[in-house]
Amino acid sequence: MTDQADEQALERVFARVRVVLVGTLHAGNIGAAARAMKNMGLTRLYLVAPADFPHREASYRAVQATDVLDSAVVTATLAEAVADCSLVIGTSARERRIQLPQLGPRELGRLCLVERGGEEVALVFGREDAGLSNEELRLCHWHVHVPTSPGYSSLNLAAAVQLLCYELRMCALATAGALQSPDWDEPLATVEGMERFYEHLERTLEDIGFLNPAAPRQLMVRLRRLFNRVRLDQMELNILRGMLTEIGKVSAAARRGGSPNS
Ligand code: SAH
Fold first, then answer.
1. Mean of pLDDT values over 233-253
2. Which residue did the predictor score with more confidence, 15 or 94?
3. What is the pLDDT averaged over residues 104-117?
4. Is 157 in the pocket of ligand 1 (CB under 6 A)?
5. What is the rounded average pLDDT for all residues in the chain?
6. What is the CA 221 to chain-centroid distance, rounded?
7. How far is CA 39 from each of CA 23, 46, 68, 161, 176, rounded to the nearest angstrom?
8. Does residue 262 have a pLDDT over 60?
9. N or C terminus of the chain: which is more exposed, having fewer CB within 10 Å?
10. Class of the 191-256 domain?
11. CA 159, 98, 26 angle in degrees (round to 5)?
């Protein structure tokens, strides 16, 4: 057990962290995940299109964590659940299947708990049968894989939640709450801001003939990976959006055969 001052420091850091369960099939797993979270001091649960919720089995398995279920936020899509986040970590039962930078569970805490002006962090878990879709993974900056015995790498969903919440707790305790943040003068861009930027970028690249909608190849996937690796701040995002707007004007004017300001 931790003393009260430690626990308060943990509450402060964990207030920025949400656990997101996507498309959970078994209500019992939702309850067990809520319990696993509360045991480790995390309380913010998001459920994306759960098959069965609320459900008696979820409450039963949550035991004393029914408050986590009661305050759970239910959304239709992962994009909605993480719209205001600036760091999204996906989890996967398989290694290297995913074209995203990979983290080990021990490195997770360092990345999630760095305080940068209250940025919101999401830890995302997939469906029991199929994990996360490629589209869902595209919203993630990193993915974490718990190194298991290679013969059987797929953990029970709630067990995966337990392990990763435990790693967050251990890191938070070792660093007495938040880690020292590198000085940064701007808040980081959110998922919602980045999604609007990607739409704008795709439209513009089509406009200028760089992206052929009939044969897009992997261009947008690769560009998403590039920008996710950098993690733009809001000012940088505004600059890029401004540049795209101007490029759009020039290309519209070129199509009309005049100057951009005519
Ligand atoms: N057949 C699915 C298994 C999903 S298990 C697949 O191969 O993707 C359900 C969820 O539990 C996963 O989406 C992931 O969020 C989590 N999980 C299971 N095993 C894991 C592991 N070894 N490391 C990290 N997360 C894991």
1. 96
2. 15
3. 85
4. yes
5. 91
6. 16
7. 23, 17, 11, 11, 18
8. no
9. N
10. mainly alpha
11. 35
Q: What is the pLDDT of residue 259?
A: 64
C-alpha 74/C-alpha 57 separation (Å) is 17
pLDDT at residue 176 greater than cutoff 80: no
User: What homologous superfamily does CATH list for 4-175?
Assistant: SPOUT methyltransferase, trefoil knot domain (3.40.1280.10)
Asked if 112 and 89 touch (Cβ cutoff 8 Å), the reply is yes
Enumerate the β-bridge partners of residue 103: 144
| Sheet containing 102-103: order of strands | 73-75, 45-48, 17-22, 121-125, 87-91, 142-144, 102-103
Q: What are the tens digits of pLDDT across the range 11-31?
A: 888 999 999 999 999 999 999
Q: How far is the CA of 146 from the centre of ligand 1 (A)?
A: 9
The structure's pTM equals 0.91
pLDDT at 12: 85
Residue 176's contacts (CB-CB under 8 Å, 6 or more residues apart) are 6, 9
The atom number, within ligand 1, closest to the CA of 157 reads 11
- Give the dihedral of Cα atoms 30, 65, 105, 26; nearest 10 deg: -10
Per the structure block, which two tokens stand in for 259?
């100057």
Residue 261: its pLDDT value, please?
Answer: 61
In a mutational test of the pocket of ligand 1, which residue from 154, 164, 165, 168 has the highest number of ligand atoms less than 8 Å from its CB?
Answer: 154
Q: Where are the domains of the chain?
A: 4-175, 191-256
74 secondary structure, DSSP code: E
From 22, 91, 103, 133, mutation site for ligand 1 pocket: most ligand atoms within 8 A of C-beta: 91
- Tell me: the pLDDT tens digits for 206-216? 999 999 999 98
